[in-house]
Amino acid sequence: MKHLKCAALAAAVLLAHSASAQTCAVSGPGINYPVTRTVDQTDDYHGVKVADPYRWLEDANSDETHAWVEAQNKLTQGYLSQIPGRDAIKTRLTKLWNFERFSVPFKEGGRYFYSRNDGLQNQSVLYTMKNLADVPRMLLDPNTLAADGTVALAGLAVSPNGRYLAYSTAASGSDWNEIKVRDIDSGKDIEDRIQWVKFSNTAWLHDGSGFFYSRYDEPKEATKLADVNYFQKLYFHKIGTPQSADTLVYDRPDHKDWGFGAEVTEDGRFLIISASQGTENKNRVYYKDLSRKDAKVVPLLEDFDASYNFIGNDGMVFWFRTERDAPRGRIISIDTRKPGVLNWKQIVPESSNTMVSASIVNNQLLVDYLSDAHSLVKVYDLKGKPLHDLELPGLGSAGGFGGKRGDTETFYSFTSFTTPTTIYRYDLKANKSSVYRQAKVDFDPAAFETRQEFFTSRDGTRVPMFIVSKKGLKLDGSNPTYLYGYGGFNISLTPSFSVANLAWLEMGGVYVMANLRGGGEYGESWHAAGTKLQKQNVFDDFIGAAEWLIAHKVTSPAKLSIGGGSNGGLLVGAAMTQRPELFAAAIPQVGVLDMLRFHKFTIGWAWTSDYGSSDNADEFKALVKYSPLHNLKKGTCYPATMITTADHDDRVVPAHSFKFAATAQADQAGGAPILIRIDSKAGHGAGKPTTKQIEEVADRWGFLSRALKMDGATETVKAAGQQ
């Protein structure tokens, strides 16, 4: 029986690119796509033969690949440049983007720190001040690190004594970081340089003499953007010494796939080490007593049975937010002198809401929850007694709430789909919030409305989504709609303000965000329901959202587009290959599109916790059924598609998008374009300069305005800009 199943699966895979799965009823003007050479490459997966004719595109450094990229970009830019109104969209985006915005301030070493962007700066600038009433002093301007803004600030940590700033930079969007150290008083860098850092934070000793960080071995220069990342190690760097003298604190050569995060407790006594295995929502916890010179690293939680997020400590007693025996999260304390499970104490129990994070400020627990994908913040005493809720301005997302145990103030941000991010100062003694910084954007929020709807997915699961539009939306099926989703890695999508989406709304578009399984909106069980052999649930949820929008006449297939990035790019690729007739346009951004080989590049192996692996026979059967690359079929009418990627994306390597684009162009039977937009000196998305962001969004909305036949959108955008 097993042999018969494999034979049937093999036949289905081999036929995918030779049989006509759908006869196109729509024809259109042909597009002369660049010729993409095919090779005779076939792999054997557990007895199933799978062709990979564009394998050569995985070599991003070859002259042939460079020529292919150049030809594809020439085609795409030529197409986009002919779209009426694309320039008007860019002009409006530029005007909307030009507003002053701030990060949430934090306090360390007797100083406040925050970042500010004056509007169109490519990168936000870091400032410091000793008192809130002081004139801020610029501490670090990343815009001076590269003329085109392609070097970004990737992370920062201030020493508790307030003397040093350790900051990491990323060039051209790469995940590779370099850590430098700046003397805060002088504003100048000292000589210390740390290289080959990836997926690491920085944790200072309390006396500022050095910090902990995680790194990999030095990669090969030619292949550093594609080679697999294994064997991360935790080091200590002493200020004033070369990186070669750094001390190895902890590594696990017996577990190449373990990664490490470090933090020093507020009292300075303990180093807390979190060991993770890929992206799985579970971790191990170790600690080291820094007050003892020869102290060893001590295992505390080694079962790898749940997530344990360190909140704080009271001497030898550690507090954690965990999903152990609580899929939606709870807070426990563990006495490290008697750490057995039977001795754990529950501080804040699990509730019907999903616990996102917790911090200790003013000797109180500030706990951030999600209630149907929007924020709810509660305050408890340290014994878990509920004190009060923090009143938020509305249906939206709150974040921040950092500080020390003895602080009486904290800062947080609040945003919604139609509320630009506002920074609040919260006085915990008075239980009062006041606006600290408020963004002013050139639009009228009263002209738009947000509603939350719930739909039933294929298996009966109730799934929420947010629908944002101009007020007075007509339910006649004629509204151009952009449906966005993610659905993976326990990541929650919550309401947030975006000038990119605002421009879409002004164009007459409807923006919809679906909270799919695989995310973290309803805790670990919601996440697990969209992983591995259950990953199809995520796509069913997304398709269910589309069908609800059509059935309720918000839109129609001729007016419906879909988008998403990274894991969301996989989502779009799966939806458009499973239900191509349901959508008029699709934009898979930096997507994971080859589900059989994703684990062979950079950090891709870490995603097997969500996806499974083609190395496993059962998981291969599930993967090959939905892998976007392997489910494109000749003779199919695919929606107008613009695939986006970047040459320095070393998170999801561009080969995913290259091979998907080449295959889709060859298989497309209709007249809708299949284009690929390949950005230069850019990566997966983090740290992308403002100018590049505006260009990309203008291309996206311009492409959709043509695909969805948004007549009059240009005039609407121009009118909005003149108000």
From TrEMBL:
It catalyses: Hydrolysis of Pro-|-Xaa >> Ala-|-Xaa in oligopeptides. Residues 495-710 form the Peptidase S9 prolyl oligopeptidase catalytic domain. InterPro entries: AB_hydrolase_fold (IPR029058), Pept_S9_AS (IPR002471), Pept_S9A_N (IPR023302), Peptidase_S9_cat (IPR001375), Peptidase_S9A (IPR002470), Prolyl_oligopep/macrocyclase (IPR051167). The keyword Hydrolase applies. Residues 34-438 form the Peptidase S9A N-terminal domain. Residues 1-21 form the signal peptide. Keywords: Hydrolase, Protease, Serine protease, Signal. The keyword Protease applies. Belongs to the peptidase S9A family. This is prolyl oligopeptidase. The lineage of its organism: Bacteria, Pseudomonadati, Pseudomonadota, Betaproteobacteria, Burkholderiales.
